[in-house]
Fold this protein.
Amino acid sequence: MKRIASAVVTSTARNYRQHIATGDFELAADEPVAAGGQNAGPGPYNLLLASLGACTSITLKMYADRKGWDIGAIKVVLTLSRDPSGNTHIDRSLDVDAPLTAEQWDKLLDIAAKTPVTRTLSAGVQIMTTRAVAA
């Protein structure tokens, strides 16, 4: 299999704050104070939405650049919600600074539905969990 990304997440023993190391970057994740955390970073679902939004924006920018379209700044607004039956939904809204034709918008919406993270989330992911072997 081809590795696409990796991350190491380490917690402290006293609270929900997490240290995340991925690529050349380090960041924190946590739960809000109301959920027992310290609000030291975005929560897991916020990070999931941030990933989807970043992938969407980057992919649309790459596409527009290849087409020679000046679309200006891209804004992706995402909301994750759960309906009474327990089904999870993500609503994604796109906006750009530049005026676009209806045909350009149709193509951008089509491309947004095909971004790598969108496809991964839509298809579902096999997650295999194992116990680390002591060295």
Observations:
- Residues 1-41 form one domain.
- The chain has two domains: 1-41, 43-135.
- The chain has a mean pLDDT of 94.
- DSSP finds three helices and five strands in the chain.
